[in-house]
Amino acid sequence: MKTTRLIRVNIVFAISFCTVFILMFSSCKELYPITKTAEGYTFEIDENQNATLIKNDILAETIEIPSEISSYKVKKLSCVEEAALVGVSLTGVFEGNNVVKEIIIPEGVVETYGPAIANCYNLEKITIPGTMTTFDVVRCDNLKEVNIVDGDTITESFSFSDCSGLEEIYLPKQINKISTNAFARCYSLKNVKFSKNVYCIESVAFQGCTSLTNIDLPDKLSEIGSNAFQCCTSLQTIDVPSKVRIIESWTFDGCKSLEIVNLPEDLIKIGDGAFRDCVSLERINVYDECDYIADNAFEGCDKLTIYGIKGSYVEQYANEHNIPFEELDTTYEPTD
């Protein structure tokens, strides 16, 4: 009798425990991201019910990415993350796809992450919507045509680095900053049309663009980062806009064809190696606002004559560094 009663108690306890467990589990929120597969893509769903594409199984020369997949809005292009010996390895959604020649990204997509579009060696054309805040298309050697749609969403960062076949590009109004490494080692790049809104060119932005012969910088530009045009060996002329106050370190280092540089009158500083090994540079005007020039700023510029204001710091610098100096038309008048 006691045994029967004990069994009944245990059964009641087990049923109660299971009921509580089921109720607790059913009340828990679903854990995100949720991974799904459909329409040739593997994607993750976030808590806002938006999709991030992480893997593509479509092999076609033209891929038009859907704006929605299984009723979820596509917002990002990203990578599959896998454990590695050290940290995590990332494989981009289109990384290493050597079949695709054209990728069309729809309006509504806001960013790419990591190597989402990388090493697509046969990619020739890409369309980027005006809704994107961040995008990288890197190491795509045959990319020649980039269509960035005009938009109202400010692009925070972007890169086409190591796209060695890219020859020209138009940057629309939402791009007001040229990001670090944006066009680094784009060896075929010859023509860049800036948005008039560009105020900053970050470091290494055009490093190694060996086909770039001249470039029209926008009037609003006020910052040019270090190494920005380093080793642009075909660059012949540069007009630095009036709002730029500093030529940072190594900005034009190794620009062996550079002959003409027009600096603004309000420039105050020329940093380390800024014009180092500009072996063709014969003349540069530096005005009396400038009160610092690094010792090696013009190292290797054996043809150079500095033109400046007589009696200024610039004349003193030229004399101390055995650089020929010629007087500009105006006479220097010290300020209090």
From TrEMBL:
Annotated Pfam families: LRR_5 (PF13306)
Signal peptide feature range: none
Gene source species: Ruminococcus bromii
Transmembrane segments: 7-26
UniProt keyword list: Membrane, Transmembrane, Transmembrane helix
InterPro entries, per the entry: LRR_5, LRR_dom_sf, Surface_bspA-like
Keyword Membrane: yes
Keyword hit for Iron: no
Protein name in UniProt: Bacterial surface protein 26-residue repeat protein
Source domain of life: Bacteria
